[in-house]
Structure formats: C-alpha cells, structure tokens
Design brief:
heterodimer; A: alpha+beta; TATA-Binding Protein; seven-stranded antiparallel sheet; 9 helices; elongated; B: mainly alpha; 77% helix; 0% strand
Chain lengths: 435, 276
Amino acid sequence: MIRHIKRFFLSRKTILALILLILGAVVLAYIFPQRFITAPPEMEKWQEAHPFWIPWVERFGLDHVYSTPWFALLLCLFMLSLSISTYEQIRITMKKTFGIGIQSEGKDLKIAAPQEKLIAAIKKQGYLRTAENPDLIRFVKHPWGYWGNVLLHLGILVAIASSLVIVLTQKRGLLNLIEGEVYLPGSPWLVEENGIFANNFILPEAVRLDSVIPEFWETEDLKQLTTVISFVDTEGRFRRYTLAINQTVNYRGIRAYQKNIFGSAFFVEVIDREGRKNGVILQMQSPPGRDKASYENFRLEGVPYLLKAKYFADADKKSITSANPLLILRLVDKERVIGEIPLKIGESGQLGLYSVKLVNVSRWAGIIFVDITGMPGIFLGFFIIILGGGLTYFMPPREVYLRSEDGGFYVTWKATRFEDFYKEEYERVITQIQR
Amino acid sequence: MTENPLIIDTSLHWTAVVVYVLAAVLNTYGVIFKKDKAERLSYFIVIAGLIIHGIALIYRWSVAGHGPYMVRYEVLSSNAWIALFLFLIFARAFPKIKPASIVMFPATFLLIAIGLFFNPEVRKLPPSLKSIWLVLHVIFYKIALGTILIALAFSVFYILKKRTGMIWLQRLPDIDTLDTYAYRFAGFGFTFWAIAMLAGSIWAYQSWGRFWAWDPVETWSLITWISFGIYLHLRRFFGWKGEKAAYFYILCFSLSLISIFFIPLIESSIHSEYFR
C-alpha cells in the first residue's frame, strides 16, 4: 500500500498534473478579482457585470482562491510529492557519492604504470578517492556537486512549506491612525487578514500614534516616512518606538511596519439648519506636490449629499510640508453643486444648507501589524536554493575510474555536466598520469 | 560643454548603440559569410560598446543615487548590458555558442534603443526601495533574463537548422548540441528566476510585512516560473526534446516577456508604480 502511494506521488504524470493544477489556480486567481486585493466597490461592480459567475465564485471561493481549503490541499499534495521525490533523490545521491557506482561511458585509456603512481597523479589533480572494490577505484572531484539537485528540490520544498505555514497561520491588521489617537486591543481593524487556522488578530496592548514625520526629496517624491508610536499597557505605562519605512519594530511577538500612506486629518464642525452640531474627521492622503491637490469623496451621517473634498498641502502652494493647508469642500446632489467653500485652519463659512468650520488639522499615517510564523523558512529556502544552484552549475562532479585489467590499468574520465568545458581538465589528468 | 546629466547620459547611450550596430553588422557579415577576421573584429568592437555602455550606466547611477531599476529606460539598458556581458562570458567558456551573437548583438542595441524612447528622466528612490534584498531581486532577474535569452537563441536556432537550409546555420553546433544547450540555459534561468522571486519576497516582507502580495506582476512571474518548471519536467521525465521542446520553450519565453515588460504597463502594481 505504502509502496503504491509512493509510486503514485513519484509518478511523473502526478507531478505534472499537480503543477498544472497549481498553475490553473494561479491563473484563476488572476482572472477573478480577489477580495483581499480588490476594493469593495470594485468587487461589487464586477459582481454586477458578471452575474453568471457568482454561484461558481461562491461555491469554489474563486474570490479568495489562496485561502480556500482546496488550494491548501493542492499545495499539501504537491509538497508531499516534492518531499518523497527529495527523499528518493537523497537516497540516489548517497549512492552516487559513496558507492562504487557503475562505470559508465567515458574516455577510456590504457596506461602501463604502477597503481600507486596513478593514484597519486589523479589525487594531485584534486580528485578524492571515494570508493573501491578489488578491480575498480573511483575518484571524484567535487563529490558534493552531486547534492546540487537535491538541494534545489529541498530549497523549493522548504520555501513552499514555509509559505503554506504563513498563509495558514498569519495575522495582519492595518490601521490608519491620527496623531494622538489610541487603538485599543480587540477593536476592529481598518483591514484585517487572517489565515485559515488563525483566530482574530488582537494586539497585546493598546497603541497610540504620537507623531508623523514625512521627509521629501527636492523633486517632492517621498524620501522617508517616520512615525513615533507608543504601546500602552493596562497600567498606563508607555513604551515608545520609532517606525519608518523599512525600519520595523518588534514588540511581544508582533511586528509593526510603516506603510507608505499618510496625509492630513481635517477636523470639521458641521452645523445643520436646526442647529445640530456634528464633528467629522476627513482623512485625506498627502497631495503629490506643493501645487497639486489630493481628492476624496465622503458620505456624512445625516447628510443626504455627497461631500467632495480637495486639499492642497499649502494654502500658498509654496511648500509640501506646510502647517497651513487649504481644504476645499464641495457639496453635490447627484451632478448639481449645492455649495463650495475653501477653508484654512480656524476658518468657517456656509456650505449649502450647512455651516462648517475647520477646527484643526493633524497628520495621520498607515501602520501595519503582523503576527507571522514561518518567515525564517523562506530565508532558509532561499539559501538552500542558492547553494543547490551553485553546486549544480559551478561544481559538477568529475569522475575518474581506475580499472585493473589484463595486468594493466584503464583510466576512464567523465564529467557529470558541461563535459566540453572540463575537457582540458581531463587532458591535465592524463598528462599528470603519463609523466 | 553641457552640464545637463540627462544629455550626457543619453549621449553615452546613443554612442553605445552606434558602436553596437557597427559590431552587429560586422558580426552578421562574419558569421554568414564565414569571414573569421570580421567576426573577431566584431567582438573587439562590441567590448568597446560594452565599456561605453557600462560607463553610461555608472554615470546614471551616480547622478540618480540608485541602481538602474527605477524607470523603464534604465531597466532596459541594464538588462541589455547584463545579457551581453553574460553572453560574452559564456561564449568564452563554450565557444560553440558564439554564432548566437547574430541574435545577441542586435538584441542588445534594440533593448537600449527601445529604452531611449521612454522617458529617461531620473526618479528619486522611494524609501520602500532602499533595501539590499531589492538589489538582489533585480540582479537575479537580470541574470535570469540573460540566461533565458541565450536559451531562446538556441531554441530558435534549433528550429531554423531543422526547418531551413541556410548555409550560415552550418557554423552552429550540431542539432543535438543546440538542443542540449537550450535545455541547460533554461535550467539556469529557472534557478535564477526562483532566487530572484525569493529575494523579492524577502524584500516585500521587510518593507510591508507581507512576503507575497499576489499583485499582477508577482502572479505573472510565478506563472512564468511554473511554466519553465513544466518545460524542465517535460524534458527530464517525459523525454521531450527537439522541435517540440523548442516550441514549448518559445511559449515559456513569451510568458516571461509578458510578466517582465507588459504586465507592469497594463496593471496597477507596486512594480509598475515606478516603471511607468
């Protein structure tokens, strides 16, 4: 039974079928929009345009292919096949490295010389004596080169296994925090992404965003984005850390990343005709330049119109890091503009039927929190593949067989790869022997 | 004398193109009409072009403050340089592949010329791209591209030699050697492509805490890699060789072109953000 299963997973057809199925799954995930990378409005639009596919999408999880049980099963089967194949290769390679092997085709030359002299000459060319029997001695230069292919497969196996562990157990949460804002553990995330076997992502402690510091190149492209965050424990103690893009923070098993999105949060006071006061926060992304605006649309509670906002980093359009931004609000009823007003900090005015005031502006930034197990496996897989590739292509084993026959010796040479490239080495071996 | 770095940069590139064109003409003449002297001379000229081209890339690197991996112009130019450099190294180690120069030399100047038609303006490096893993990611993709280009040349030569009676093709190695070289270089490409993808995933993890985001470029890169894997599997275990394998390889190569050059242009992705 076990032999049958092993044969099934080692079958070239099984392996090809599994590779093709994985390829098919990846193509499917490319064709059907995936929830974790598609904005909800775009997702709805796609569903409206393709009603025929909705039952299929729902039945097979085609909108989240990579977190479906069938994709995980496919990866597991492929890994199993790769594991058995790697094991088989290890077995074969052990024989190749330490066994006498079968003297296969190669360059055969009869030489009349004492055995000791021949052995010394072959060894002088860097060949190691790896095995022998009464009639045959086998020498190999770079016998570790046999392991290149095993390592290539092992590296791919380790990388895929680690990816699977990550996909199944990872927890990720995104927050867009405003300076001074505190996020409490267990509160909803802006975006949360968990593996099939992962529970809800709950931070060990509360997090507060203390400050956001963007830096720009002279071209106004972003040079660096730095934030200062504090973890706050239940007794109110603060632990302050600095985050930046490519500069992460590790805290109690959780890693925090600086996302490259940031901007201004406008605190606007809205008063309707009945005198009801409502405070809203309009979070907008930083504009691409000092004279370019950033745009965003908002739906406010109790307001039946669309609020279109436009913002310049500097009211005078002279600096991208100004503390005097300009917010322009426009109230729209379908296509009709009801009101429009430009606001600087502290200014107020009438926006259609509403009285509005820009009370304050603070910076906000996106921060990612991650709880991942398995990443070292990806690194390990990387180095194993490099090692395997290096051994395969740069250290192909070269074999010399010394066979005693009819009172003399036959020397056979062969390279396991790139034989043409090592022809000169064979000639050197022969010259050394004949000397 | 001009102080505009862009003018100096593009002038150096155009000079390299002219030198490469000269080398390609001489090389084609030498290979087709069996003029050894012309062929030998073409190698000296192409090395001169490679030096000028290298100077252009280093100059741009010093002006931009980052390697050639931000805008399409510099990406194509550096791809061309690495492909030609690898070809010259391999041609020295395996002289039988030398006739592939008839494809490699023109491919080099065409890649630069295409790049010159894109906006060559220098872009500053965004913070997320400041990582040694990104450099490794890009370098290994370039090496992979160079090796799969050489494998493509052998696959095409195989088909031409089998299907046509062109005299100059007789200068190429025999048909079985062409087939074996195509297989070996495809194996190189597969390995380097894997290393490039893994380096990219480590970089992504370092920058965003996500080792794989399934963005369109990543997805297509994986599709290409799996396709090369299928090609190697078919050759190794199903005994595919010859014309059938050569056509399948051309299909895989087309996929690699789609993932490296076309997807960043038509899809929104972290890779395309700075390529446009």
